Fold:
Amino acid sequence: MDLVTASFKVVGIRPSGERIEIELLIGKPFLNESSPVQQWRCPVSCKPLYGGVINMAGADAVQALCEALKNGFGQLASFKHYGGQLLYDDGTDFSLEYYEFPSSGQNNA
Structure:
């Protein structure tokens, strides 16, 4: 990934007890020049949970960015769902709820 827009690292504990460092990287959205219709892409990587970079698609840069965030945090949620733990370096629980978007039907005013 050439340009990283945002990133963070968290400690993961696999169900086996193995301790790993998980790094979520969100790249800069870019216009997909090879698409016959206007399509934006945004790279996301969640190492080592997924080894490569996924370019999430959207109708515009913001939608592509949102899709990349959704994918990255979805990988972290899946890790927890299958018995993994997410922790800060100091050993306290890393909660994904602080990174959730409200549903579009809610009025948060």
